[in-house]
Design goal:
This protein is 30% helix and 20% strand. It is an alpha/beta fold. The chain has a single domain (2-185), classed as UDP-n-acetylglucosamine1-carboxyvinyl-transferase, Chain.
Length: 193
Amino acid sequence: MEQCIFLLVAGAIAGNIVVTGLDVFSTQADKVILNALRDSGCSLSVQEKIIECGIPALGSSSLKPFHFNATDCPDLFPPLVALAAYCNGTSVIEGVSRLAYKESNRALTLQTEFAKMGVEIILQDDLMMINGGVGVKGAVVHSQQDHRIAMACAISALKAEAATVIEEAEAINKSYPDFYKHLKMLGANVSLP
């Protein structure tokens, strides 16, 4: 499920995607991403082994902000931030304290790198508030050697106003070496060094 999360978010913001072979009844904590996707108003169909996710019928500009408690699934912060960047209004994610000791301090890294893309993230106590729907700008961002940061920036760049360059983009090799290849297969314009 972990690898598919970013692709499902890509479907919600950039176009329809069908992911097969997943066990939606597994006990894996990451499957709760489906709740945030549903709350955002994207087109979502969940069947036993197939998940279809796409932009809302009224277009990606009609995505709604969501409130999500990621305390028990802190690895969901990066894809949730990518989703929230396109939601009209302020999305709130709880559980920021769980992010300090990941591959990077993910709360600060997300705040810094998404600011470069024109997305404001406010950190307050154990909350992350993402002000979305104002347009994502192309920028030069840095993965900070964190695979999930690299993937979140890449997903956010799919509908950005200009090209995005991800420095140390190869960080994805830790968990999903074929990530950029799969984005290209889905029609994304991806250039690799």
